Structures are given as structure tokens and as C-alpha cells.
Amino acid sequence: MKEKGSNKQIDSRSTCWYCGQPATQMDHINPVFLGGNNSPTNLVPVCSWCNKSKRHYPIEEWRKKLALKYGYSFSEIQRNFWISRGITLPPDAKFIFYFEKMGWVIS
Ligand SMILES: [Zn+2]
Q: Taking CA atoms, which of 6, 29, 48, 84 is between 20 and 30 Å from 20?
């Protein structure tokens, strides 16, 4: 992960990857409910609000719900990130999560 300027203050291990608030929990990107596992590539730190809001939704389903409230377009980085994890983004989905803005990737 790149760090420069004020971004040094922000720690990807203690910040919610979805919204940027302080993280207090871990979320399964691909829900256990839908076959997600406990591997590091499937876990990200999140705040309680995002964890509750996302619940058992797959990321793209949750993103659609959020997109009804917020209007953003996907970047190239976002699409490549999710494609690398086997997730195809719906062409009309709109919402940028915090980790995508920051350029953080799950490793
Ligand atoms: Zn959050």
C-alpha cells in the first residue's frame, strides 16, 4: 500500500475499509452464509455500522443498495480489484468504498 502525506496517519488495519471510520470488527467480503471462508483475502476491518449494513449481502449487492443513496462511478482500480477476486461488477453499479479510494488491496 502506498503511503504519502496525510495518508500516513491512516492505518488500513484499524480503519473501516468500506467507509473510513475507525474499525472495530472484521467483515467477510464474501459472506460465510454464501460460502466465504476465514482466509485473510476474505477479511477486512470494518466499523459496526458497515458490518450491520452489509450483513449477509455479497459486496456487489450491498454496493447496489448503497448506490441508491450515493452517486459515484467505478474507477479502473476498483474494477481490477474485484475482478482479481473473481467478482464481476454490475456495469450499472455505483459506489466507491473507502479502501478503493485509498488504493488498498487485500493481500
Ligand atoms: Zn464503515
A: 84
Return d(Cα 3, Cα 29) in angstroms, integer.
24
24-67, pLDDT tens digit by residue? Answer: 999 999 999 899 999 988 999 999 989 999 988 988 888 877 77
What's the Cα-to-Cα distance from 80 to each of 18, 27, 48, 66, rounded to whole Å? 17, 21, 27, 20
CA of 25 to the centre of ligand 1 (A): 10
The candidate with the shortest Cα–Cα distance to 19, out of 73, 107, 96, is: 96
Going from the Cα of 54 to the center of ligand 1, the distance in angstroms, rounded, reads: 10
How far apart CA 66 and CA 70 sit, in angstroms, is 6
Confidence of residue 8 (pLDDT cuts 50, 70, 90): very low
